[in-house]
Design goal:
Low-confidence stretches: 312-328
Number of domains: 2
Structural class: alpha/beta
Helix content: 25-40%
Strand content: 15-25%
Strand order of the largest sheet: 10-9-11-12-13
Radius of gyration: 21 Å
Number of helices: 14
């Protein structure tokens, strides 16, 4: 499993869930020196064929999974792998062209943002499936703490989020800031309402993590990206538009029983259907179906150098020149 380690990254939650079902070896760089990875790597250039060969000397490798983790990997030798290759694309709403290029190298592609399933299929990726984000109940759960905030938002800010939070702060007691990933659920549990605002229509982690805390989630409407396939408005959460944000906030702050009933149903729904354990089961079932067809044995070989060049031109962080990459 290849990803860039950082505390609270989606890949870490997936890894934790995957280890409950099978043996996992992780590889990749880390944002914390010396932390976590079974096989630490430096930089973006990965000879995945050599990694596979070294690992297969000691144990059976069944599948290679790369998880989008805000990092650019240049994979050499992926076509030579005799096993299924999987890419989980998370922030496609921010990097569609980049993900489209990467995805074409893999046998199976899972996408966290539903609206990009069809565009990726139309781009030539045959096996693309929607796999939403989720929660980790060991980390994202309810804490029995007094509710000392009316509204809570934890995460990065853009102009839209700043504007909406400023409006809320004029009338309500708002906690806004950044907390370590293992403290977020405590702050959510101490809040009557958890506020969310998507970026580019994304179905983000906050939706699932807030619901798991047992507090009411107040989140914006999404357009055909799966939110209302998973949860119902006024049953599991509350959807707002920019012009009724203050109204719904005040309404649910003053209607405690109704607020807590919706929050409880939302918590039950997410814990019973939308944990990373559920997601890993869905992923493994798709992989098993794919293996049973034998498609990975006779798959069309992609031109790695062409894709390498496309990635290099789309992403300029790589420290070596393109000529140096090809000579290695």
């Amino acid at each position: 499993m290849l990803y860039n380690y950082a505390p609270g990254t989606t890949a870490l939650y997936l890894e934790r869930a995957l280890r409950k079902y099978c043996t996992v070896r992780t590889c990749g760089p880390s944002s914390i020196a010396g932390a976590h990875q079974d096989i630490p790597l430096k930089g973006s250039y990965v000879r995945i064929d050599k990694l596979y060969k070294s690992l297969s000397n000691n144990w059976q490798v069944d599948v290679f999974i790369m998880v989008d983790s805000a990092y650019t990997f240049y994979l050499k030798g992926i076509n030579s792998l005799p096993i299924p290759t999987v890419f989980y694309a998370i922030d496609t709403h921010l990097a569609f062209r980049f993900h489209k290029t990467i995805a074409s190298l893999f046998d199976l592609v899972f996408v966290a943002q539903k609206e990009f399933v069809e565009p990726l299929r139309k781009s030539g990726c045959e096996n693309v499936f929607w796999l939403p984000l989720a929660c980790d109940p060991d980390i994202h759960h309810h804490y029995d703490l007094p509710k000392i905030y009316d509204v809570c938002f934890i995460g990065s800010l853009n102009s839209q989020r700043k504007s909406l939070l400023k409006r809320l702060s004029h009338k309500f007691k708002v906690y806004q800031g950044y907390r370590p990933y293992n403290e977020v659920a405590k702050f959510y549990s101490q809040s009557k309402i958890v506020f969310n605002k998507s970026i580019n229509n994304d179905l983000n982690m906050r939706v699932f993590e807030a619901l798991a805390s047992g507090s009411l989630l107040l989140t914006d409407r999404l357009v055909d990206n799966g939110l209302e396939d998973l949860f119902q408005d006024r049953k599991h959460l509350v959807l707002y538009d920019d012009d009724n944000l203050e109204y719904f906030t005040e309404y649910y702050l003053t209607h405690e029983n109704e607020r807590e009933e919706i929050a409880a149903r939302g918590c039950d729904c997410v814990l019973n259907n939308h944990t990373y354990g559920h997601r890993i089961k869905q992923m493994l079932n798709r992989i098993e179906e794919f293996i049973s067809t034998g498609t990975h044995v006779r798959r069309r070989r992609r031109n790695e150098l062409v894709h390498f060049a496309k990635i290099w031109f789309l992403q300029s962080r790589f420290g070596k020149s393109f000529k140096q990459i090809l000579q290695e």
